[in-house]
Write a structure and sequence with these properties.
The chain is of the alpha/beta class and about 140 residues long. The chain has a single domain, classed as Response regulator (Rossmann fold). The chain is built from five helices and five strands; from the N terminus they run E-H-E-H-H-E-H-E-E-H. The protein has a five-stranded parallel β-sheet with strand order 2-1-3-4-5. Strand 3, helix 4 and strand 4 form a beta-alpha-beta unit. The chain is globular. The N and C termini lie far apart (about 35 Å).
Length: about 140
């Protein structure tokens, strides 16, 4: 069973995402992000929840502002490069998103419905398994 860590500062949306993913057979844990608690990643420390996860579904605005979100995702990529990240943005995709390279993520722009979340998770997992392009 694929383990998914959902990080979202909006508790209602987070609950909807968790329920939708559980109905699709994923094992899910929830974190409210740095707004809900002290975040070890922002202190440069490994995150036990990220270590547990096979994939993370991260709210692009979990820190409440774009620069903090970019720093948090970069920190996650540096500390947990083996765990793919789906970055959900209900509005527009942030301009700092990287889809290749060491800080790459899988963007999910628009409503994070259960089907769209599952498709993005599977794409992120497949991308993580693909060999890195020769450069």
């Amino acid at each position: 069973m694929t383990r998914v860590l959902v990080v979202n500062h909006d508790t209602d949306l987070a609950d909807e995402e968790v329920d939708a993913l559980r109905r699709r057979g994923y094992e899910v844990r929830l974190c409210l992000g740095p707004i809900g608690a002290k975040c070890p990643v922002l202190s440069g420390i490994d995150c036990a929840l990220a270590e547990w996860a096979d994939v993370m579904v991260y709210d692009a605005w979990a820190t409440g502002e774009p620069e903090g979100a970019a720093a948090l995702i970069a920190g996650l990529r540096d500390l947990h490069p083996e765990v793919p990240i789906v970055l959900s943005a209900s509005g527009i995709e942030p301009d700092w998103v990287e889809v290749v390279g060491p800080h790459r993520i899988t963007p999910l722009v628009g409503a994070p419905t259960g089907d769209r979340l599952a498709a993005a998770i599977e794409a992120a997992l497949a991308s993580a398994q693909a060999p890195a392009p020769a450069g």
